[in-house]
Amino acid sequence: MVQSIKILIVRLSAIGDVVHSLPVLHALKQKYPNSQIDWVVEDKAADLIVNNPLINKAYVLPRKKWKSQKNKLNTTKEFFNIISEIRVEKYDIAIDLQELFKSAFIMFLSGAKRRIAHDKTREFAHIFANEKLPAHDIFDINKPIIERYLEPANYLGAAVEDVLFSIPLSSNETVEYINKLLADVNFTKPIIIFSPATTWASKHWPENYWAKLADMLCDDNNIIFAGAPNDAALINRIISSSEKKKYISLAGKTSILELLELFKRASVVVAPDTGPAHIANATQIPAIICIFGSTAYKRSGPYGKKHFSLSANLSCQPCFSRQCKLQTNKMECMKQISPQLVYNKIINATNHKG
Questions:
Q1: Omega into 14 within 30° of 0, i.e. cis?
Q2: Buried b / exposed e across 291-318, counting CB within 10 Å, b at 16+?
Q3: Hey, which of 13, 83, 110, 352 has its CA 20 to 30 A from 173?
Q4: In this structure, are residues 302 and 278 in contact, taking their beta carbons and an 8 Å threshold?
Q5: Exposure string over 59-96, b if 16+ CB within 10 A, otherwise e
Q6: Is residue 161 part of a domain?
Q7: Shortest CA distance to 293 belongs to which of 327, 329, 334?
Q8: How many other β-carbons are positioned within 10 Å of the β-carbon of residue 279?
Q9: Number of domains composing the chain
Q10: DSSP secondary structure code for residue 309 in this structure
Q11: Which pLDDT value is given to residue 3?
């Protein structure tokens, strides 16, 4: 008889890290097909978890609301109301994939019989686990973070050789909306999506490089810029500084679920190490050209043979700093990744002749 168990996953944020955690779902479902798998997530990445076909229930912590809420007593009450919901389920297993104090504390409060995490984690989070995986550096620059997140599943007997992402299915409304956004696209040409924005200054590829790359590609491809509402100014500057200006900006026009559908239409996605690059990776459709500066390309690069992670490999990389600390040759790591190099990788990925 196939064992039926209840499993709770705790991975609160950020968007890219939640995406990197998604292969755990497939691995656990293959091992325990009758299992109930639930997930605790914060609101920013909730769209990836709510309505995910392999998740029975999502517990969404409204972090944005709680952060702005003046009455912290109400925040505390709301938090423990969610904890009460979790405890009712009487989970057999809880897995802390984030391994910070806040995620480990939620795992502990869940009341799960078995609480799994790595030993010697950050913020002493491991003290809340009663089953500990061997410790190793979460910032190991040579180990893909996806493989680290799969270790608890492997510990539970799941096969982890096939890395498959489970994502919400697109609704008819989402498909129709993306169709409207792409109404002026010439579908006889490939779609290449640029997602240039990131919240880390140290991850920014120069604006003039984006403009030059767009000009190099636009005659044979549809170039579409994607981003959040506050990315519109950056994208507008890039388009304005380009020579050909044959580009569509969808900045502020797509949610996470709509981005998933948009990326399914693309041949290539070009981006720094940021959420949209990893969302594109989760669709398992376009080739991804990911440009790395302050972070580690082997650790966080898109997973799969058709993708390319580009890094200058300077002695100061990876620094994991939000701001470049160099006094001279600032942001040299990003400047050394030329538009021509990225162009060549795109041609390679699409098997075009350039």
A1: yes
A2: bbbbbbbebbbbbeeebbbbbbeeeebb
A3: 13
A4: yes
A5: bbbbeeebeeeeeeeebeeeeeebbeebeebebbbbbb
A6: no
A7: 334
A8: 28
A9: 2
A10: E
A11: 60
Give yes or no: residues 289 and 212 share one domain. Answer: yes
DSSP 90-108: --SEEEESS-SHHHHHHHH
Mean pLDDT of 132-138: 95
Residue 288 lies in a domain: yes
Same domain, 67 and 103: yes
CB contact set of 122 (below 8 Å; sequence gap of 6+): 99, 100, 138
Beta bridge partners of 40: 10, 59
Q: What is the pLDDT of residues 190-220, one digit of tens each?
A: 999 999 999 999 999 999 999 999 999 999 9
Q: Is there a single domain that holds both residue 217 and residue 328?
A: yes
Confidence of residue 353 (pLDDT cuts 50, 70, 90): very low
Q: Do you find a cis peptide bond into 53, omega within 30 degrees of 0?
A: no
Beta bridge partners of 38: 8, 57
228-231's contacts with Cβ under 8 Å and 24+ in sequence apart are 228/197, 228/252, 231/196, 231/197
Residues 6+ apart with CB under 8 A from 154: 27, 160
Q: Which segment of 145-154, 159-168, 344-353 scores lowest on mean pLDDT?
A: 344-353
Amino acid at 118: H
CA dist 43 and 122 (Å) reads 23
Report residue 345's pLDDT band, with 50, 70 and 90 as the boundaries.
Answer: very high
Instruction: Identify which of 123, 40, 44 has the alpha carbon closest to the alpha carbon of residue 89.
Output: 40
Maximum CA extent, the chain: 66
The verdict on residue 166 lying in a domain is no
Structural domain containing residue 142: 6-155
User: Domain end: 107, 129, 155, which one?
Assistant: 155
Q: What's the predicted TM-score (pTM) here? A: 0.94
Domain annotation covers residue 78: yes
Residue in 98, 107, 105, 302 with CA at minimum distance from that of residue 195: 302
d(Cα 344, Cα 21) in Å, to the nearest integer?
31
Provide the CATH number for the domain around residue 201.
3.40.50.2000
